[in-house]
Design a protein that fits this description.
The chain has 250 residues and is of the alpha+beta class. The protein is built from 7 helices and 13 strands.
């Protein structure tokens, strides 16, 4: 998705022996791009390339995650012309120059969700200051299902949980605002000690269950029903082991 889109904009990209040789001969040219799936990373790269390409770029089926909105707001403040921010169609008019600005990066929903699930896994109390509550509905809903007690205020989220959590019968990863694929591995880790059976269905990425062998070696009872479905039988304890993180979220 990334390479084909950048090529449409005029980038010359050669792939050889695991390397990418990328260059622009002249300037990038605005064009129409329709993504087959609303990829966050591809949307970001297209927007970044299009703001200084010559002419107009129309991006259809763009991702709408909060990170995309933040990027467009940042670039617009720096002088870029972007229409349709927050929708699945972006119209970007290329400019020769942008200008410097001061910008505060918004709090990250995946980081906040990871800390939240850490409390669910261990028990205890945490206050997530400046957590982006408005972007975390699907994660907060799962936390409540598992038995967490949440108190939301303008300053953040207070989380209290017992160390043994309820199982979650079914979780399906989806594009925003559904349950995020980047929270699937932390959720699975917590559910290994939940009381009962939990089923996770991964619909966004392939090979997103690479954490399973490591969790099994620690005593987890996880059954892979298919490439995209995992059934977790909660166990009372896990045990320390030497393991490898096979992918980013794992």
């Amino acid at each position: 998705l990334h390479l084909s889109s950048l090529r449409k904009l005029g980038a010359v990209i050669e792939e050889s022996h695991g390397y990418l040789d990328c260059r622009v001969e002249g300037v990038l040219q605005g064009c129409e791009i329709s993504l087959p799936i609303p990829s966050v990373g591809a949307t970001e790269n297209i927007v970044l390339a299009a703001v200084k390409a010559r002419g107009v770029t129309v991006l259809q089926n763009a991702a709408k995650e909060p990170e995309i909105i933040s990027l467009c707001e940042f670039l617009t403040k720096a002088g870029a012309i972007i229409e349709g921010t927050g929708t699945d169609t972006l119209l970007i008019k290329g400019l020769e120059e942008l200008h410097g600005i001061t910008y505060r990066i918004p709090s990250d929903r995946i980081v906040a969700g990871t800390y939240l699930f850490s409390v669910l896994g261990t028990g205890g109390h945490i206050f997530l200051r400046d957590a982006p509550v408005q972007h975390m509905y699907a994660v907060l809903k799962k936390a409540v299902e598992m038995g967490a007690r949440l108190a939301v205020s303008k300053d953040g989220i207070s989380v209290m949980a017992e160390p043994v959590q309820n199982a979650v019968p079914y979780t399906k990863t989806e594009i925003y605002p559904g349950f995020p694929t980047d929270m699937q591995s932390p959720l699975m880790a917590v559910l290994t000690k939940a009381s009962g059976l939990s089923l996770i269905e991964e619909t966004i990425f392939e090979n997103r269950f690479q954490i399973v062998p490591s969790l099994r070696s620690m005593g987890a009872d996880i059954e892979l029903l298919s490439e995209h479905k995992a059934l977790i039988h909660g166990v009372p304890k896990l045990y320390g082991r030497e393991v490898n993180a096979m992918e980013l979220r794992g």
